[in-house]
Amino acid sequence: MITRIRPTVPADLPDVMSIYAIAREQMSRTGNATQWAGSYPAASFIAEEIVAGHSFVCVNEKNELVGTFCLVHGEDPTYAQIYEGQWLNDKPYVTLHRIASAGKEKGLAKYCIDWCFTQHANIRVDTHRDNRVMQHILQSMGFNYCGIIYVSNGSERLAYQKVL
User: Fold this and answer.
1) pLDDT digits 0-9 by tens, 55-78
2) Is the whole model's pTM more than 0.90, yes or no?
3) Which of 158, 153, 128 is nearest to 143 (CA)?
4) Which fold has domain 2-163?
5) Which of 58, 97, 141, 162 has the largest CB neighbor count within 10 A?
């Protein structure tokens, strides 16, 4: 059972990278082989996220790291333009990125998202068109599909937002 979420510390990096590897395998098995292709996210990138205070880990009752995600306060440049739709509002928001599970605990994404709403009432998130699992989670948790955004490498993402 997940017992808490805490900021990621540099010593967590090997475990976090292992969680991302497990998540890549799971996404590939569920028809989403391209969203985190290769070794994305790179350890150097996650190390920067840790230093910036954006990276968090989920810990279970055995004190094992069982999940990770990034929560970024402030405007996301890739969200400035949205196509085939619009955001629910233009108020300050946080962006949820890269939820990944080690596969040891059920309900990890919901736990993470619920925790994020304790931090901010306006959350935006995007996901790959092939990531049906994340789309289902977002829709089941009341997120609204808002349109399409393009990430820094030019690839398309489906954009969602929820406001409490």
Assistant:
1) 999 999 999 999 999 999 999 999
2) yes
3) 158
4) Aminopeptidase (3.40.630)
5) 58
